[in-house]
TrEMBL record:
<dbReference type="InterPro" id="IPR001279">
    <property type="entry name" value="Metallo-B-lactamas"/>
</dbReference>
<feature type="domain" description="Metallo-beta-lactamase">
    <location>
        <begin position="16"/>
        <end position="206"/>
    </location>
</feature>
<keyword id="KW-0479">Metal-binding</keyword>
<dbReference type="GO" id="GO:0050313">
    <property type="term" value="F:sulfur dioxygenase activity"/>
</dbReference>
<dbReference type="GO" id="GO:0046872">
    <property type="term" value="F:metal ion binding"/>
</dbReference>
<dbReference type="GO" id="GO:0006749">
    <property type="term" value="P:glutathione metabolic process"/>
</dbReference>
<dbReference type="Pfam" id="PF00753">
    <property type="entry name" value="Lactamase_B"/>
</dbReference>
<dbReference type="GO" id="GO:0070813">
    <property type="term" value="P:hydrogen sulfide metabolic process"/>
</dbReference>
<dbReference type="InterPro" id="IPR051682">
    <property type="entry name" value="Mito_Persulfide_Diox"/>
</dbReference>
<protein>
    <submittedName>
        <fullName>Beta-lactamase</fullName>
    </submittedName>
</protein>
<dbReference type="InterPro" id="IPR044528">
    <property type="entry name" value="POD-like_MBL-fold"/>
</dbReference>
<dbReference type="InterPro" id="IPR036866">
    <property type="entry name" value="RibonucZ/Hydroxyglut_hydro"/>
</dbReference>
């Protein structure tokens, strides 16, 4: 908590995702959290402008990339982790419960036996409380299921990257109705985050600028505790579960869920057909 990493956020307007470069203040080591690969789904075209910006920043600042962290298997954007790893190195890490997600969506997408459901596409699988280092900086992963079964919050010094556990105080929380999601679990996970020190910085994975405010992605535990519209001010578990379940029933599927899941459950690698050509499936009535 005494270590204060330099955190740079990069907003992707197409998916309202924020990717982060987190620099250890004591060395030239850094980590990326939740990168984005650009897709024009209608055209079936993938590009790398957002990832190239992260790469350029790391190169310009002379940093050494040690970790490429995924807070979870995102359903609304594609990860660029392998593209970045090819250029800069680093280890790709995600929560060990990725195996549950791979099993669920391996079935939905009717993947063959060549699709491994053991998380082996990733370099590191984190368990609850696992520690690692970015340069000299101590980091740990906290298991926070509810939005998905594999969600983790990553704490790096005095900064926590909350994935889709929480949104900004005026945004509330993420949905909990994807396969394996659970509103009660999400509430419990949010309480774990809110039990961190009040002045810990919190960095969001998404922001939608509710009520016309400018996009923002940094808040604190104290702010969330006091002001979060879904869980702040001492909302009970029952109140949250009722609200979340009713709200989720009204939400449409994210536009990019079909390509996102197929790519992200492979650690950001695009699947290929039997000839090795990159290709995505659209299973009908499967989700
Ligand atoms: Fe998500």
């Amino acid at each position: 908590m005494s270590v204060h990493p330099h955190v740079q956020g990069f907003f992707d307007a197409a998916t309202n995702t924020i990717s982060y470069i987190v620099k250890d203040p004591g060395s030239d080591a850094c980590a990326i959290v939740d990168s984005v690969m650009d897709i024009d789904y209608a055209a079936g075209r993938i590009t790398y402008d957002h990832a190239d910006e992260l790469i350029r920043q790391i190169e310009d600042q002379g940093l050494r990339l040690e970790w490429i962290i995924e807070t979870h298997v995102h359903a609304d954007h594609l990860s660029a982790a392998p593209y970045i790893q090819d250029k800069l190195g680093g280890r790709i890490g995600i929560g060990s419960k990725i195996m549950v997600v791979q099993d669920t969506f391996g079935k939905v997408f009717n993947e063959g036996t060549e699709f491994q459901r053991d998380g082996s596409q990733f370099d590191a699988l984190f368990e609850d409380g696992d520690t690692y280092r970015v340069g000299e900086m101590d980091c740990f992963a906290m298991y926070t299921p509810g939005h998905t079964p594999a969600c983790m919050v990553h704490v790096m010094g005095d900064a926590a990257f909350v994935g889709d556990t929480l949104f900004m105080p005026d945004g509330g929380s993420a949905r909990a109705d994807f396969p394996g999601g659970d509103a009660g679990q999400l509430y419990d996970s949010i309480q774990k985050v809110l039990a961190l020190p009040d002045d810990m910085r919190l960095f969001m994975c998404h922001d939608y600028g509710p009520n016309g405010r400018d996009i923002a992605w940094e808040t604190s535990v104290g702010d969330e505790k006091a002001h979060n519209i879904h869980v702040g001010g001492g909302k009970t578990r029952d109140e949250f579960v009722k609200f979340r379940t009713e709200r989720d029933a009204t939400l449409a599927m994210p536009k990019l869920i079909i390509p996102s899941l197929q790519v992200n459950m492979r650690a950001g690698k695009v699947p290929t057909d039997e000839h090795g050509n990159p290709v995505l499936k659209v299973p009908l009535n499967g989700l």
